[in-house]
Design brief:
The complex is a heterodimer of chains A (497) and B (322). Chain A is mainly α. Chain A has 21 helices and two strands. Chain A has one domain. Helices cover 76% and strands 1% of the residues of chain A. With 322 residues, chain B is an alpha/beta fold. Chain B folds into two domains: 162 residues, 3-Layer(aba) Sandwich (D-Maltodextrin-Binding Protein, domain 2), CATH 3.40.190.150; 97 residues, D-Maltodextrin-Binding Protein, domain 2. Chain B contains 13 helices and eleven strands. Chain B is elongated, with a radius of gyration of 22 Å. Classes of the chains: A mainly alpha (497), B alpha/beta (322). Chains A and B meet through helix 3, helix 9, helix 14, helix 17 and helix 18 of A and helix 1, helix 2, helix 4, strand 7 and helix 9 of B.
Chain lengths: 497, 322
């Protein structure tokens, strides 16, 4: 074991490898931070370049982009309330209120610490326990996944603090949008209204851009701008304690960080779940366990920690089924699978015996990337803080140009730009009438898993509902769901008194 | 609110400006004089996308012009298909084509174009579809599977994407063997493998044997049968459907095509370059690594593949009433 490790370290530490990791992180953070540009596409564009790199360098580059991009999404979520990546939508719930209080620096630092710690622990778990976790993940069949999704859906109600019903309504609306397109069982098309562009469903990224970035643009236009619209998006406090995370604050969040890491790794390791769900569930769990749940949604540092730690831990989690089973769980890991294959490495059970000379140096690269991630993100923080000091009359038009371009380039159709606008208006109206937007996104993501796993479970179980309660893992999640519902009902009643 | 509307309008107009293309005239014998757009009708990172990007990496050295990969995904690849089918047939818009674009949507009546609205340039490869089971299932060969399935009709579950190449291939075989199975819909090949590995379904039917090879090598899965013309070198002990006596050959192709009605000079030039790329050592190495079974066919042979696929799949859809 140790000689493998030492040789891996000596293979990894070359100037080229160090440079590509730095480059990857830099690209990832930047792309992640800009609403409208997305990480999966960046990874795909970099793919041909890696054809001609040695495998360790090529993989390190893309892993750097993956890690950086997952964190980068939180920067715009905190500063502009426009998450650059789906998982960062949860970070914005508390990050943006913090920024509005002038504590953008504090929120961003919390997000760096959370990301780096979550990532680091997840990578260690990946390296040491991947095979065991993959074995557990395989036990999640359709029945178990269905119960897990039900559990995740319930957290929507918990997360939407002030407006439980509105949050649930937004979640249901998201599920409704998911149903557009080809239905999984008979492949019949539904709710496309004869628009064949909708056969593949409502395009996800244009929806995301519209819902979060474009809607925020409309909100800002509406606000009467005094003094020629010269004021900035959020104020920045000059007090030191508003720009740093104090040790006491960090200590108070340690439990949340560790719990979120575990949730991130666990959900990330289930193919098809992904970092957005893990961020949501972890946020819900943090809120339920917190001593002051009422601060969630109003600028709770714990909330930022919960979301960011989980979504970055999910990156390490998602690599588990990819590397041990050859099964990619999301768009980015699907591309990474291609990169492995292009270099003649087959992810799967034989990876560690047949390609040890490559995979262990890549692991070293992951750990090194964590350290560099911290350095680069901290350095970049000053730069990003500058961005919000630009007048919003200049900033938002620039953002909207990138959004239109981003929505268009996903599949190079103007139709997607219209979709973006549609969701921009919808998001604007939701914000105006106090409906939280993030649950809609969750409903959309979970809807697909919900329907697929229910249909599969019923077919495999020959129409019986019993397996949902006789299979232990499934039962566990259903009981947890019940617990959450009762818990939040009691909490609600106490508040009313 | 009024301001909002004005801005909205501005954005719409700006978006519309994207749609305007360029119009140039030039002699077909000079082709190509500028960069060529290779449309991938699927998202970035999938099998078709990776193949296309490999092709676009090697082709420029034979074309003398760059080739740009553009993902025009959506509508189950119909959007990209329509874009190319309706593009000016000047050779500057090509498509990385699979049956998912010009065969399946057409036979389901879901495409605004026809299978033969494209000019075949050449086939790069065809993947070997395979069925695999966990070794703890009560069969270890296709003969035993047939016996078991005959004794327990509709009880054996198989996972694959609904009405995809794998399912249509599987149904063609099930029909030929006179068997009934229970279909579990999944989102992609990887999910089918996952469900079979976890023991949640009995059979995984995947579009490429590459998705199961390492599990077969470690004994976690057993490859029962392949649907290609010949046995696949990745699983040399697994029989083909044809050698077991069923006349079913179904191998999803990947290739390059253009719109219908391209000038003859342009088509000839493209087919020539295509075959040069196929002989390129770098290209072959890249392709083999991703597990694509390299099976180059020239334009005319490729056309014949489309004809066979179109007839084979139209037939099964009619008979099964899908």
């Amino acid at each position: 074991m140790f000689d493998v490790l030492f040789s891996a370290i000596s293979i990894f530490f070359t100037l080229q490898n160090m440079l590509v990791v730095i480059l990857g992180l830099f690209i990832g953070i930047t792309i992640g931070a800009i609403p409208g540009l997305n990480v999966p596409m960046t990874v795909a564009l970099l793919l041909p370049i890696t054809f001609y790199m040695d495998p360790v360098a090529g993989l390190s580059l893309l892993m750097g982009v993956y890690k950086g991009g997952t964190y980068g999404g939180s920067i715009s979520a905190v500063l502009l309330n426009t998450p650059g990546a789906p998982a960062a939508a949860v970070t914005g719930i508390d990050g943006y209120p913090l920024a509005q209080q002038g504590k953008a620096g504090k929120a961003l630092r919390a997000s760096i610490y959370g990301s780096v710690i979550g990532e680091f622990i997840a990578d260690i778990v990946l390296i040491s326990l991947a095979a065991q976790i993959a074995r557990v993940a395989l036990r999640f069949g359709p029945t178990e996944k269905f119960s897990l999704v039900v559990f995740a859906l319930v957290t929507i109600g918990v997360v939407s603090s002030r407006h439980k019903l509105k949050g649930i309504a937004a979640g249901l609306l998201g599920i409704a949008f998911y149903t557009v397109g080809i239905e999984p069982v008979s492949a019949a098309t539904r709710f496309t209204f004869g628009i064949f562009q909708l056969i593949g469903g409502v395009p996800f990224l244009p929806m995301l851009i519209g819902l979060f970035a474009v809607s925020e643009f409309f909100v800002h236009i509406e606000r009467k701008s005094g003094a020629g619209g010269a004021e900035t998006v959020v104020p920045v406090s000059s007090r030191r304690e508003d720009n740093y995370v104090t040790w006491a604050e960090f200590k108070a969040s340690i439990r949340t960080v560790l719990r979120s890491t575990a949730i991130g790794i666990g959900i990330g390791a289930l193919p098809g779940s992904g970092s957005a769900i893990s961020a949501y569930v972890s946020y819900g769990a943090a809120k339920s366990a917190s001593r002051n749940p009422e601060s969630f949604g109003e600028g709770s540092l714990e909330g930022v920690f919960a979301a960011e730690t989980a979504n970055n831990a999910a990156v390490g989690g998602a690599l588990i089924p990819l590397l041990t089973l050859g099964i990619p769980g999301d768009a980015i890991t699907a591309i990474l699978l291609g990169v492995f294959l292009v270099h003649g490495i087959v992810p799967g059970p034989e990876l560690f015996t047949r390609s040890a000379d490559i995979i262990y140096p890549v692991f070293v690269g992951l750990i090194v990337a964590n350290i560099l991630h911290y350095v680069i993100a901290s350095a970049g923080l000053r730069l990003f803080m500058r961005v919000i000091q630009v007048s919003r009359a200049l900033l938002f038009p620039a953002v909207i140009v990138i959004c239109v371009t981003g929505a268009y380039t996903v599949s190079s159709t103007v139709f997607d730009v219209y979709i973006m606008l549609f969701f921009g208006i919808l998001g604007y109206l939701m914000k105006k009438f106090d409906f939280p937007v993030a649950p809609l996104l969750m409903g959309y993501i979970l809807g697909s898993l919900l329907e697929k796993s229910l249909v599969q479970a019923l077919i495999v179980g020959r129409g019986s509902l019993l397996p949902f309660v006789t299979r232990p893992i499934s039962l566990l999640f259903l009981l947890l769901t019940l617990f959450f519902v009762v818990w939040s009902a009691i909490g609600h009643r106490r508040q009313c008194r | 609110m009024k301001q909002t509307m004005v801005l909205l309008l501005a954005v719409v107009v700006a978006a519309g400006a994207f749609a305007t293309g360029r119009a140039e005239t030039e002699a077909p014998e000079d082709y190509p004089t500028r960069s060529i757009e290779l449309v991938v009708p699927w998202g970035a990172g999938g099998r078709t996308d990776i193949n296309a990007r490999m092709f676009a990496t090697i082709a420029p050295s034979y074309l003398g012009q760059p080739m740009v990969v553009v993902n025009r995904a959506g509508g189950g690849s119909v959007i990209g298909g329509q874009y190319v089918a309706e593009a000016t047939p000047d050779g500057y818009t090509l498509i990385a084509i699979t049956p998912g674009t010009n065969v399946f949507p057409v036979v389901f009546g879901r495409a605004p174009y026809d299978t033969f609205d494209f000019t075949p340039i050449g086939q790069i490869g065809s993947s070997t579809m395979a069925i695999a089971s966990r070794p703890d299932r009560p069969w270890s060969s296709v003969r035993e599977l047939v016996q078991y399935a005959r004794a327990n009709p509709d009880q054996v579950t198989y996972a694959c994407v609904t009405l995809s190449g794998p399912q249509l291939g599987f149904l063609r075989w099930a029909e030929a063997a006179g068997l009934e199975f229970s279909h579990v819909p999944v989102g992609n090949d990887a999910e089918a493998v996952e469900a079979a590995l976890g023991g949640h379904v009995d059979i995984a039917m995947t579009s490429s044997v590459a998705t199961i090879t390492s599990h077969v090598n470690t004994g976690a899965l057993k490859a029962i049968m392949v649907f290609s013309e010949r046995r696949d070198t990745a699983v040399p002990d697994t029989p083909t459907a044809t050698e077991m006596g069923w006349n079913v050959v179904a191998s999803p192709f990947t290739g390059i095509a253009g719109p219908k009605g391209m000038p003859e000079e342009v088509t000839r030039k493209l087919r020539e370059v295509f075959m040069q790329v196929m002989e390129d050592q770098d290209f072959q190495t890249l392709l083999q690594r991703v597990g694509e079974s390299f099976d180059p066919k020239d334009g005319d042979e490729f056309y014949q593949v489309w004809v066979n696929d179109f007839e084979g799949y139209s037939g099964i859809i009619e008979r099964m009433g899908l």
